[in-house]
Amino acid sequence: MRLTVLGCAGSFPGPDSPCSAYLVEAEGYRLLVDFGSGALSTLQRYAGLHAPDAILLTHLHCDHMLDAASYVVVRRYAPDGPYPALPMYAPSGAPDRLALAYGQEDGTVEDVYHFYGLQPGTFPIGPFTVTVDRMNHPIETYGVRLEHDGRVLCYSSDTAPCEALLRLAQDADVFLCEASYLDGVENPPDLHLTGREAGEAATKASVGRLLLTHLVAAWGSEALTVEAAGTAYEGPLEVVRAGACYDV
Length: 248
Ligand SMILES: [Zn+2]
Description:
Blueprint: E1 2-7, E2 21-26, E3 29-33, H1 39-46, E4 54-56, H2 62-77, E5 86-90, H3 94-102, E6 113-117, E7 121-125, E8 128-134, E9 142-148, E10 151-155, H4 163-169, E11 174-178, H5 195-204, E12 210-213, H6 222-232, E13 237-239, E14 245-247
Helix pairs in contact: 2-3, 5-6
Bound molecules: zinc ion.
C-alpha cells in the first residue's frame, strides 16, 4: 500500500495544509479516505483531479468531508463528463449532508456518488480489506483499518481514547493517528487525543510506526506534541505533512 497525505490540518485548514484527506493506493486502485476542506486543491497537485476510484468519509464534520461537496462539480460538469457515479462509503446522512452542502436542498447528488452506509464490520473496497468501527467522538465516526497483501494501515479518524481504536490498530504496520490536543492543559472530554494519548494507543496496539496527524496549527505545538507522544511510544514517529508519501 502507498499512503499519500493530501491534507492533515486538524479542525480547519492550516497555513501549510488542507484538512484531512489521505489517498491510499494498491494494485493501481486509489481509495480516498476523508475529503476535508481544501483537499480538492492538493488532490490535483499530488494525485490528479480524477484520481479516486472510491471515497470513504469517516464522519461528517466539515474538516473531513466538505470538499466531497465541491467535488460534485468536478464529476457532474466536466467538459468530458458527466463521470459515472463514484462509490462513496460514509455514515448515514451523507447523501443529504452533501446535497445540502453543495446547495442542492431539493435535489440529490446520487448521480455523482453511489452511497454505501458504513456500519462496524469488515468489507472489501477494491483490493483492500476494510474494517471500520465506531470511535469516541460526538457524531457517528469510524476509525479505519486497511489491509492489503499482509500489510496493515490504521487511521484513527477523530477520537478520544477508546477500546475500539486499540482493536483496529492492533499490530498495524503504520498507525495514522490524530493528536489534536496539547497535553498538560484542560481539554474537552470524548472528542480528541493528545500526543501522549496517541503514543499510548500506539504502544498498547503494538504498531510498527506512528504517524501523527490532525494537529491544529494555530492552537497547538508540533514540538510539544511529538515530545509527548515520544514519552509514551518508543517506536518511530513523526508528524505528517501535505504531500508526504509512505510505503506501508
Ligand atoms: Zn471530527
